[in-house]
Specification:
- There is one protein chain.
- 35% of the residues are buried.
- The protein is 38% helix and 14% strand.
- The protein is built from 9 helices and 12 strands.
- Helix 6 crosses helix 8.
- It has 396 residues and is an alpha+beta fold.
- The two termini are 25 Å apart.
- It has one domain.
- Belongs to the mab-21 family.
- Pfam families: Mab-21, Mab-21_C.
């Protein structure tokens, strides 16, 4: 079987990546500008919600941790600018987080109690389901400081901070803010099934579907569910591990009862620094991402997102820790493609930090099977030259 050479991958990226980067960067800037105006108005209406400009290194939760803030700023010096509130899942799908404020001093709670209520507060005859692997309950008692409004019934039931209620409050403010900011021609709230907020945002390039998610940032704390690093692993280096853990994690409001753990800061740090040993991991990731978007899994709602690909590259880096394993770009590209094919075929992809969580648990199985078939066909005769001229004719 003829393989893919390093020159093939370089040539492919040279002719495809720059156009994608410029197009996505324009969309990100336009979406950020619109949602900056919207969330500023929401923040003025309700002090529990921050403007998206107060995410990441600008977060209130970092103001009392100057050493961590200085470390974060130093790591980003000289690197491409990041939008800490915006995650590009695909060119047509963004996840945008809205920081919450008024809660600080988070601590893990060991005690367990059963919840017998619905998100609306109605008494249930059976207990509410336990959290899945990537989720957890959140109680007001877990914070050393909490603003009075977080004790109100619109977000709090019997001491629990209920994500479905937080989402509902944000949605009500969102409708008012869109009208107040005269953005009804640019932003359209989509009908959602379940606790989520989805918008269509018009940009100069195309329409972008945005999921707007309330987020509680918890820097400087590492959750027990994330059993990382694993024993006897040589990647990443020890000092990088300590830095990742110091950045902590986030809690996203994306379900009825339970808050979803997110490690976006740590993931970005690992991805941004993984090739300091001279490897080609990020070039592999960008090439696979481009092939996924153009050929293997095109369409506005791909079953595999950029975040899934990042998880695959992180796992591949841990299981191939030697810098020598990432010198041959062609072979490394095929290695990542094979891992993607295996995940799609088995319908299973572990989260890098919470390995018991399957990120493809609720993915469309028909789309995963179609993707696995396309990847199998590609691996039988891998070539990137024809991909430069192949259009995105069908969804995966």
């Amino acid at each position: 079987m003829k393989g893919v050479t390093a020159e093939d991958v370089h040539h492919f990226l040279l002719h495809t990546e720059d156009g994608r980067h410029r197009r996505v960067a324009r969309m990100v800037e336009e979406v950020q500008k619109i949602l900056l105006e919207v969330t500023s108005d929401i923040s003025n209406r309700d002090s529990r919600f921050h403007c998206i400009s107060n995410a990441g290194i600008h977060s209130d939760s970092l103001k009392d941790q100057p050493d961590l803030l200085a470390q974060w700023i130093a790591l980003q010096r000289g690197r491409r600018p990041l939008h800490p509130c915006i995650q590009v899942l695909s060119p047509s799908q963004f996840l945008v987080t809205v920081p919450l404020r008024g809660l600080s001093g988070f601590g893990q709670k060991r005690s367990r109690r059963w919840r017998y209520y619905s998100p609306s507060g109605t008494q249930l005859v059976a207990p509410a389901m336990e959290p899945e692997k990537l989720h957890q309950w959140l109680e007001i008692e877990q914070f050393q400081k909490s603003a009075p409004h977080w004790h109100d019934n619109d977000v709090n039931i019997k001491g629990d901070l209920v994500p479905a209620r937080v989402i509902h409050v944000l949605l009500e403010h969102l409708y008012r803010a869109i009208t107040f900011c005269s953005l009804t021609d640019k932003v359209n709230v989509l009908e959602s099934f379940g606790p989520s907020i989805r918008l269509n945002v018009e940009t100069s390039e195309q329409m972008v579907e945005v999921e707007l998610v309330p987020v509680l940032e918890v820097p400087g704390f590492w959750p027990r569910k994330a059993q990382w690093p694993r024993f006897f692993k040589r990647w990443p280096p020890r000092e990088r591990i300590q830095c990742v853990k110091s950045f902590g994690f986030d809690l996203l409001a994306r379900s009825n009862y339970h808050w979803q753990l997110s490690f976006l800061r740590g993931e970005r740090l690992l991805l941004e620094t993984m090739d300091e040993d001279g490897g080609c991991r990020m070039k592999c990731y960008r090439a696979v991402r481009q092939m996924k978007e153009d050929v293997w899994c095109p369409g506005s709602h791909p079953v595999i997102s950029s975040h899934h690909l990042q998880m695959i590259v992180l796992w591949a880096s841990e299981r191939n820790p030697s810098p020598k394993a990432w010198k041959d770009l062609g072979r490394c590209f095929l290695r990542v493609v094979k891992r993607l094919q295996k995940c799609a075929r088995q319908r299973f992809l572990r989260h890098y930090f919470v390995r018991r969580a399957n990120l493809l648990k609720y993915a469309d199985t028909a789309q995963l099977d179609a993707l696995a078939d396309k990847l199998s066909q590609f691996l039988r005769g891998p070539s990137l030259s024809s991909s430069l001229y192949q259009g995105a004719s069908s969804a995966c």
